[in-house]
Amino acid sequence: MDKIKVAIIGVGNCAKSLIEGIHFYSQNPQETVGLIHPTVGGYSISDIEIVEAFDVDERKVGKLLHEAVTMEPNRTMIISEISPSKIIVKRGPTLDSIIDENRKYFIHESNKPSVDVAATLKQSGAEVVLNYLPTGSDEAAFAYAQAALDAGCSFINCMPTKLGRDEKWIAKFSQKGLVLLGDDIKSQLGATIVNRSILELFKRRGFRVTQSDQTNFGGNADHHNLHYRPDAKEECKETSLGSVLSKEDVKPNARMIYTEKNYDHKRASLFVMGEMFGKVPASVQVILDDEDSPNSGGIVVDAIRAVKVLIDKNVVDRAAEISASIMKAPYKQMSEEDSYGVFSEITN
Ligand SMILES: NC(=O)c1ccc[n+]([C@@H]2O[C@H](COP(=O)([O-])OP(=O)(O)OC[C@H]3O[C@@H](n4cnc5c(N)ncnc54)[C@H](O)[C@@H]3O)[C@@H](O)[C@H]2O)c1
Q1: Is the C-beta atom of 14 inside 6 A of ligand 1?
Q2: Residue 125: CB partners within 8 Å, gap ≥ 6?
Q3: Calpha distance 240→237 (Å, rounded)
């Protein structure tokens, strides 16, 4: 198979886990544990090649990619020791991506000028651009999405800025035969899919949902940023949860709490309550413990390969259906079961 050439925006924890995971499965081609789809449209994980990367932190800009991923504040559970890379992390435009509260420790802004992102993407041969910017960086996300378009690249929006659910942006990409997937990647076993599955079960069993509370405790750079800029993330989560409920049910709640430690461990506390037979109450409480960043990697490897399949099969107009299975806030919400079926139908 052809290699799928990928550029990364934001060499943070998610990028680190993704790169280490691609290396792990490439070195162990028989290993299928941890993969929802060992192959997607015939593509294996080893067919994914990272060809370019952008950041704004002086500890990462100008470094080789295998060194940059190890720099603070990145701190995830190591999946594998990656091979030396020849890719030098380029300085991207900052725009609205750094909040003052993150400057002390989480981002040390580089004083180098930004490169021309579209020209750099073109030169790298990238086909797919992965957006891992901090949540709330709308201006920066739009600028990178436009640069991807100008360079003829598809775009996967792993954060909540409205791109994959905006008809204007969807049209801009599909008119050029490119794919836009978004918004906000749904982790492999994250709070959203677990919470959503419980709500779907309540509805399938005839309940009225009277309470649905999700509290996410995390200590990484993403959670520090989310402590100050939670709105877009909470909206994506609440939209995803609300989409499996009906008018008679309560509106679900999702909250983000920073735990004041720099580690990637995350705990989500879920509480769902409802009325069953005879309007008698029943509830479920779940504690989910996970490593935040590998949890997104398991889905991003599917997203990258799905983009390639949509282009190979010349069905870029079906991008929104792929987003329904892998994004918290896609253009069109579907049930977990339906979206899984559609993903398999399109990519097989
Ligand atoms: N499971 C998950 O971790 C998960 C799930 C869904 C969505 N997300 C979203 O993915 C995004 C990335 O998460 P993360 O944990 O890797 O965050 P992170 O803070 O570890 O990484 C962000 C990286 O972006 C860099 N950056 C900041 N501004 C930039 C700019 N203008 N140009 C280029 N790089 C820039 C930072 O220096 C940092 O290296 C967040 O928006 C997060 O909400 C994460």
Answers
A1: yes
A2: 5, 51
A3: 5
Q: How far is CA 253 from CA 140, 152, 177, 209, in A?
A: 28, 39, 38, 12
Q: Per-domain residue ranges for the chain?
A: 4-186+294-347, 191-291
How far are the Cα atoms of 70, 93, 113, 172, 180 from residue 155, in angstroms, in the given order?
25, 17, 24, 11, 5
Closest residue by CA, ligand 1 atom 12: 132
Q: Using DSSP bridges, classify how beta strands 208-218 and 265-275 pair: parallel, antiparallel or unpaired.
A: antiparallel
Instruction: Tell me the pLDDT tens digit for each residue of 195-204.
Output: 999 999 999 9
Residue 26 and residue 111: Cα distance in Å, rounded?
A: 36
Q: Report d(CA 252, CA 191) in Å as an integer.
A: 13
Instruction: Note the CATH architecture for domain 191-291.
Output: 2-Layer Sandwich (3.30)
**Could you tell me the CA-to-CA distances from 42 to 1, 120, 166, 298 in Å, in that order?**
8, 29, 30, 17
Q: Is 12 in the pocket of ligand 1 (CB under 6 A)?
A: yes
What are the beta bridge partners of residue 138? none
**Alpha carbon distance 13, 271 (integer Å):** 28
C-beta of 292 in contact with ligand 1 (< 6 A): yes
Report whether residue 117 contacts ligand 1, using a CB cutoff of 6 Å: no
Q: How confident is the model at residue 268 (pLDDT cuts 50, 70, 90)?
A: very high
CA angle 236, 241, 243 (to 5 degrees): 95
Please tell me the predicted confidence (pLDDT) of residue 260: 85
**Region 4-186+294-347: CATH code:** 3.40.50.720
Q: How far apart are CA 340 and CA 224, in angstroms?
A: 32
Pocket of ligand 1 contains residue 216 by CB under 6 Å: no
| Residue type at 134 in one-letter notation | P
The yes-or-no verdict on residue 262 having pLDDT over 90 is no
> What is the number of the ligand 1 atom nearest to the C-alpha of 295?
1
